[in-house]
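Exam prep: given the inputs below (a chain plus manganese (II) ion), describe the expected output before reading on.
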Amino acid sequence: MVHNAYMALIRYTTSTGAGLGVVLGDEVAPLDVELAAGAGVEAVLAAGTSETRTLIERARRGSRRLPLGDLAALAPVPKPSKIFAVGLNYADHIAEAGMPTPETPTIFAKFPNTIAGPRDPIQRPRVSGELDYEAELAVVIGQRCRHVPRERAADVIGGYFVLNDVTVRDWQKMTPQWTIGKSFDTHAPIGPWLTLPEAVDPGDLALRTLVNGELRQQSNTRELVRDPHDLIAFISQACTLEPGDIIATGTPGGVGFLMDPPRYLAPGDEVRVEIDGVGVLLNEVVDEPADSGHIGEERLAGAYVAR
Ligand code: MN
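Solution:
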C-alpha cells in the first residue's frame, strides 16, 4: 500500500518528454493522457470528476513509476484563461497596511504572461527596483461554472497550489489600478503541483515566505477574511469560470514594501514560498535580460527605458 503525503497532480518534464502524473510520496505515477501543446492539469480536470478519478486510480494501480527527484516540475496550469487575485484579504495584512477591512472583496487581475514554474527565475524588471513577494494559497477551478452558490463552491474546486503574487510596487501604486504592477512577465510562479481538494483543509493551512532563509511572512489561512468558497460565489456572479482558472486568495502580513525601511528583492535572492500540505515554490531573482526587447523576431539591442 502506497502512502502519499500529498494527493496531487504534477505536470513535469524529463529527458524523454513532458506529461502529467500523480504524486505518490517521492514517486510519480504517469497519467495515461496525451497533452496538447500548452495544456496542463486543467485538461484532466475538464474531463469531469468521475473520469479524472478513473485516470488517477488507473495510474495508482499501474506499475509505472518515476522518481520525483528525476523530473522537473512545471507550472501545473501554463495558460489559464483567467487569474483573479484579491487585495487585503488577511486580517494581519490589513492591520499592517493600516486599512479598513473592505466591505467588498478587492478583486484584481494578473495576466497569463505572468505564469512561471515552481523553480523558474523571477525577473527583476529593467524599469523598477521595487520588486516584492506575496505568499498566497491559490484555488484552481475544476469545472466550468457560473453563479455558484457558496454552499456548492466545493463542487467546482479542482485543487490548490502555491502562488507567489510577485508585485512591482511603484508600478502598482502609480495609478489606482493595480493591474500593470501585477502583470510583469514571470511574476506568478505557481505549483509545485495541484493538490487535490480531499488532501487538505483550505481553512487551516500554515503558509510562509523565506528570503535567503530569513522568515518574512508567516500566517495561516484561518486569517482569511473571505475564503475560497466566498470568492468563487462572488466572482462567478460576474463571469463563467473555466477549468484551470486561478483565484489567488491574498497575502498575509510581512510584505517587503511595508517594512521600515522597505526591503525589496534583488538578483541572487532565493524566494521560498511554502504552504504546509500543499508544497513549496523556490525561485531565484534574476535581472530581466538586457535583450528582452523585441519586435517579432527582431531583437532590440540595449536596455531601452522610456520613463
Ligand atoms: Mn496578492
